[in-house]
Amino acid sequence: MTAYQLLLSIDKTAKQPAYLQLANQLMNLIREGKLRAGQKLVGSRQLAILLTIHRKTVVQAYDELLAQGWLESKTGSGTYVVENLPEVHPQRLTESAGFDPNPLKTAGFSFSEAPHLRRDILQSVTSLHLDDGFPDPRLAPLHELTRAYRSNLLLGNPYVKLGYSDTKGSAWLRQELSVYLNETRGLKISSENILITRGTVMGLYLVSTGLLQNGDNIVVGEMSWGSAGMNFVQAGTNLLKIAVDEHGLVVDELEQLCQKQPIRLVYITSHHHYPTTVALRADRRIKLLQLAEEYGFIIFEDDYDYDFHYLSKPLLPLASADRTGMVLYCGSFTKTISPAFRVGYLVAPENVIRHLAQLRRIVDRQGDLILENAIAELLQNGVIQRQLRKSLREYRERRDVFCDLLKTQLGNYVDFQIPDGGMAVWAQFDKGIDLEVLAQKAIKKDLFFSNGKHHLPLTNVTRLGFASSTVGELEQCVAVLKSSFK
């Protein structure tokens, strides 16, 4: 009886009902072998007196365990732990280096942690930020999106709208996207050429898992987007890096690689190369498509910020000139609305879309159908198109102001080229500056920017995003940077 008092306790202030507290504690005692198979439990009246609770609470707890199969009742004899439970022999835990007895923190089984997945997540917790090149959510059409989401949530057939849907994504959004991409990107596609994803990263993952095999050779720029490389390495492929200069990916180096070994896929951000923001020159675009046709490799074209080009009209993507079905074209609404709204798209030949949609089913049965339909409505009504024109004017002004501030206030410390498009400046800091120390000083003054460590092997370079800050905020950012050099 004393043991019951020591092992069981009821918190009468807890939200969980007392009978469930008692049932769970008894269940754990059985699991741990402290109550053995076939052992008789103390009577409900006695246990209620010991725990100072109502007898009905104990009866309800016993009934719960009887229903779950932990206990059995024998008429005229009492309540027992069921006989068919395996015998538990509690073992003494030996202390060893690194042992953590908390199963919520450390698993009881071993696993390998892949080094390529260890990548810091850039998060700004400061009032000021020069980020990686993110949009300003204050400019997003949130009111229009709210109305569209609400109407799509409440109107129409709920069984259809709130049920399972096509793994390719919303048929309405795919139709509107096909029209939009044909008009703006020079494509000639239908809705059957589009797979809606949760963003570019999902598109990369599906392609890496569904179209690549262990040992395939993948080509990226020596400076490239880390999440793309992580996906390719995760698929077991060999990552080959070639140079990037002021005109983009050096395609001549790619040709030399093709002459020596088979290449399965080339990843490229042709419009504004990540991270340097340079555009792939026209002659290299033509040659890249010719090489893909000649050597049979896939081109994964990540067009992450096509709509934000300030010098002239945006350059049409490689996909618009693809004659042989070698280009997979991927984009998202991250830069248009906000990163929080996870809607992207992958454009490819119909048989590829069908194949990847089947794979998507085991990763994510479908996307957010209501959100996808809401975005389709905004595309159909021209809201997103108007939003893009408005944002383009605002971001161009912010780019001009920011670049002028960098030149006049920080010209002795930072070298850069005014970007033709995108949302960030590729900045080369003076070699005498420790960029990591500078970032630490800035964050103490409420300014976040990346220390550039994820752009290794290059040093003292980073992206300074201007789009997400107002002109006044950009002035404050530069003032903080200037004071941090001292």
Describe this structure in words.
The protein is an alpha/beta fold and 486 residues long. The chain folds into 3 domains: 2-81, Arc Repressor Mutant, subunit A (Orthogonal Bundle); 128-134 and 391-484, Aspartate Aminotransferase, domain 1; 139-385, 3-Layer(aba) Sandwich (Aspartate Aminotransferase, domain 2), CATH 3.40.640. The protein is built from 16 helices and 16 strands. It has helices spanning 2-7, 18-31, 44-51, 55-68, 142-154, 158-161, 171-185, 200-211, 226-234, 251-260, 282-295, 350-360, 369-380, 383-410, 435-444, 471-484; strands spanning 71-74, 78-81, 128-130, 194-197, 217-221, 238-242, 244-245, 248-249, 265-268, 298-302, 327-332, 344-347, 414-416, 424-429, 447-449, 461-465. The strands form 5 sheets. A 7-stranded mixed beta sheet has the order 4-12-11-10-9-5-6, with helices on both faces. The protein has a 3-stranded antiparallel beta sheet with strand order 13-14-16, covered by helices on one side. Strand 7 and strand 8 (248-249) form a beta hairpin. The longest helix has 28 residues, at 383-410. The protein starts with a helix and ends with a helix.
